Each structure stands twice: as C-alpha cells, then as structure tokens.
What does this fold into?
Amino acid sequence: MKTIELKNVSKLYNKDVCALNNVSFTVNQGEFVAVMGQSGSGKSTLLQIAGLLDSCTSGEVLINGENVSELDKNKLADIRMKTLGFVFQSFHLNSHLKLYENIMVPMLINNEFKNRAEMKKRAEELVETVGLSHRIDHYPSELSGGEQQRAAIARAMANDPDFILADEPTGNLDSKNEIMIFEELKKLSDSGKGVLVVSHNEAVMDFADRICIMKDGVLSEK
Amino acid sequence: MKLTNIRFFATANSKGNSKNSIIKVLMILLVTSVSLIPSFTLTVASAVNEYKNDFRARCLELDPWLKELTDDILDSVRNINHVQEVDMLKGMRSQLFSINQVTDNNGICEEWQKEIEERNAAVQALSLIGSEKMSVIAGKDLDESPSFCCIIPSLFYPFEDTENYNNLEYIDGESLIGKTLTVTANDGEYYETLYNYFDGEQGGNEWIRPAALEYKLKIVGVYYASPTANGYFDSIYVSEETGRLIQETELEAGGYDLNSDETLVEKWWNTPSLRTHYVIVDDYDNIPYVYNEISKLGLVCADNPELGIKESVLIISKILSVASVILLIAPSVLLVIVLIQSTVSNLKKRRGEIGLMKAVGYSDKNIFFCLCYEQLIVTLKGFFVGGIISLILIAISNFYNNHSSYVNRLYIVDWSGFLTLLSISLAVSVVIPVVCQLIALKRLTKIEPKDAMNNM
It folds into this structure.
C-alpha cells in the first residue's frame, strides 16, 4: 500500500512558534483526506511537510515506506516529481502557455517522456479527464476560475503521481465551482490516488473519506 | 532537462517580460555600437599604424640652416636615441614634371596622348633616400630596375583638373606598368635654400635654374599610396641614382660646372655639409623626442615628416577611438542595469510560478537554464537586428567611399575586422544575460517550493 506517513512530526519557526506539535498522520492510496482548521492552525504547514515542500524540526516523514526526512533537496525534488502532484489556491498557470502546454510543464523534467509528442498525448488525455477538451488550445486568461483549477488538477496528474496534495483548492472559486473541484479530486481518489486536501471550506466534508482537524498545531481526527 | 524542453518553455515565457522591448532596443544599440563605429576605428587605426612603419612617415628633414651638417654633427645626430640613420638627399626632394607623352612597345599610346593634350598632365617626382626601399604591390621595385625607371601610385591621377576632387576617375596604376613617361621639368627652375659658410657668415637663398630637359621614365611598378599620408596621387618615385642623374644633367645643361666650386650652386652641390639630409626615426611615435634632441643640438629640423600622417586623419582616429570606447561602455552598462533590474523584478513577479516549478520537481539548475534561455532569446533577437543594421550601414558606407575621393578610401571597412567585432558583440549578447542571471541566482535559490502556496 502506498502511503504518506508523518511520525511524531513537529515544526518550529524561530525556535518559539510551534506550527506542528508532535503530529502523526497517514494518507493512504485511494483515500481522500481533508484537513480542516482555522487560519494559523498549522494545516498548511502539515501539507508542506507531507508534500516535502518544507522540512520538519523533528520526527520522520515516510513516502511509500521510505524515510525522506534526511534527503537532500535534489532527491526530494525527484520524489515530488514522481510521487506527488500539487494543486494550489492560486492555480499558478503560466499565462504564456496554452492549457495543454501548462499541463505539460511537470513532464518537461521527466525523462520518461521521450519527446513532446508523447507529452502532448498525455496532456490531451488529462484534459479530457477533467472535461476541458474544448478549451485545450486556450490560454489561462481565457478560462474561468473553475476551468483554471481543473487545468491545475490535470497538471498535478501529469507525471501520474501516487498522491495529490491540494492547498485550499477552492479558495478563489464560487460555490458551484467548489463542488466541481471537490468532485474532480474525489474522482482521483476513487481511481486509486491518495488525496490530501487542506481547506477551511466545509463543503469538503461531503467528499472526504477522513476528516482531520488542526488546532494550534495539534491534529485530531473527526 | 533536455535542451529542446528548455527552449520550448523559454520561448513561451520570453514573450511575457514587459522589459523585453527595452532590452531588445538596448541590444540593437549595443551591437551597432560594438560593430559599427569600432569598425571604422579599426580601419583607420590599422591604416595609420601601417603607415607609421613607412619610411617616409619616419623621415625628418634636416637642413643646414644654422650650422653646416659636418660629419661630427651628423654623428651626434646618429647617436641620438631612436635615430636609425641619417642620409643625404642626393636626388630631388619633389620636382614637378610635365608629361609630354606616354609610349609603350608599340609607340605612342594614342588614348593617352589625347588626354594629355586636352587636360595637361604632370607628376611630382621624388627620389628615394639612402636605404629607403619603396615596396611595390605589382610589377618590380626600383632596386630590381635600371636607372630612369619609376614607380607610380596604385591609384594614379596626373591631370591638373582636380576641381571635382571628390569624384576623380583614378587610373589603375597597374595598367600602366611597362609604359614609358616622357617628362620635362616644369618651368625649368626651382628654388633651393643654400647656406654659405665659407666666409664664416650665414649664407642665403638662391634660385637654381637647371635646364628643362626631357627624360624618359619607364614605369616598372606600382606602390600602395596610403590615404593616411600627406602624399598625392600624382607622386612618382625614382631611385636615388636616377634622381642624382636628373639633377646633375639638369644643372650641367643649365650651365653649371659641377667639377668646380666657383658658384654657390656648384659649391652647394659638391659640399655634403651644405646639402639637405634626412633623419630616419625608428618609430613614428618617437619623432617628438628625436626632434627635441636635434633642436638641443642647435640644428633646424622639421618637426613632422613631409609625407607624414595627415593631421586630420590623426584627429579622426582619436575621435573614433574615444567614440568607440564610449559607445562600447555606455550601452553595455545600461544593458546590464536593465537586465539585472528585469531579472530581479521577473523573479519577484514569478515567485509563485517558480515555487510551483520547484514543487513539481524542477531543480534550481533547470530553472536557471530556463531563465537564461528566455533572456538569450531576447538578446539574440536584438543581436540579429543590430547585426543586420550594421551590415547594411557598412555596405552602404563602403560603396560610397569606394566611389568617392581617394582620401575616403581610408574609411573602407575591412569585412574580416567587422565580422570579428560582430562576433564579439555576439559573445557579449550571450555573456551579459548569463552573467545577469548568475547575479540573480542567489535570489532564485531563495525561492522555496512552498512559495507556491502563497496566494499571488
């Protein structure tokens, strides 16, 4: 079983601000886990550490059983490329690339793709998966917020990762699009991906298999 | 990350930077600055430096105005640092001869005869001095030829109608090799400065009136007349021996007895210490020093060679050099400032995007190469446009100068020099953006993957 596991992880900033306090947490393959909490509760920090975007002060982080806590940043980048996909609140689509080209961005550093034709084919498949085939040649500025976030989800799937980590994916969307995004993420977990969503949006509760609450750096399951 | 992928990514992003237009314009300016004016600078400097080595450019005229040039005095001059040799002028300094006829093996050249009769033709004849060797670019030089031969300039214009100075139809000197000029000394007189110390007093000047004899001078070769020099396109050279013979026969035919010392002219001819000499300096740049040292000896010496480098050319050469330096430094500095500013603001603006790239696995190296390539696309576009502009301007300039006055030939740019400068500007257009990215590298490495989580 593929997992992201945090064991007794703590994160201190400036030696006195405790963002995470001895947190143990697991996301399994095929699971949709939502972490909720107020601003400043430490949920984003949890996602950063689980996603290898930041290091922990103490504890262990294991990806698919491998302890990655002490690896250098190049190896961590490699693990992120192969194993993790990210969806952020701000979409971060490149305004100079078309939709399918944006989806190709993570593939450009993946040597498993022999040429751009292969990348484009994969991008087209992902675009179809998120229901944006009719917008494939459009630039991000021509897409709605919901469409951009769906494009970001497709991009997160570019290298066929085991896990998708989403930080407030509906933060910039209206309620109709929020549901659409959570539905897309649910589809991914149903297809066997592990999905970790950090959100203060209560709508996520209707889609998550597990809900965890962060408060003052401490995680508890609901 | 493969180069093709870097190119793909960078090509798209290169459109996005708002400062790209400024960078492109600065790049065009830089390329034209590096390749255009410096091409002229190099061309002029090269011609000047080449001519500086010329015998005539290092020749100072030494006259017995205040003192006779005795052997002791000449030895003192020879002992001055940087003096290569001192030679007596045995022939003509510069004597005007009318051309009466041009002949070849078949007789009179009819097309020439017509020109001479309609337009009047004359040449300035100079005789070689001492060890001087006037090298030829075609035909034979005077060392290999008997007496009464001459060499003419590669672009020859002996006619007196020089009103349209900027549009003379020069004659290709090579086409005249093998022909013979029949010439006569103009007016049969010239003015010579003589000093008579026989009675311990300073002497005076005398008109020498040699006979207007006719001479036949066979053209054996052609020399390159540098447009930097003060010479003219009607100057021909004869050997020292030919010059001496011409002077001798003229004086004798004019009634002087060169075996006696009765008249001033005869004494002057037979007394080496009363004759004009030339001081040959080892390097053009040492002329002021040698002049000062000779002056300290109480002698009268020219401070500049008669056929030295034109003052105007030296001034232009200096102006071009200064302009080249300014034009190289100013746009370069401006470009570096704009590029660094653009790079830094670009990184700030794209912090979230770069954070995302790092989040999905891009290394600092991958991102650095992408950003470099983005910048190179812009600077290289500027290089190509600037290069084409320079190329066209140089081509137009060369065409104009090639069909213009002889002096303007000085500004005909050598294409290999221009291409070298263009290559330098290409190197600059590659190096500067890379250096600017390297300067910003620290900022790049400080962007964290988690910066993608900031809501921008």
About this structure: The longest strand of chain A covers residues 17-28. Residues 20 and 217 of chain A are 4 Å apart (CA to CA). Chain A has one domain: 3-221. The mean pLDDT of chain A is 90.
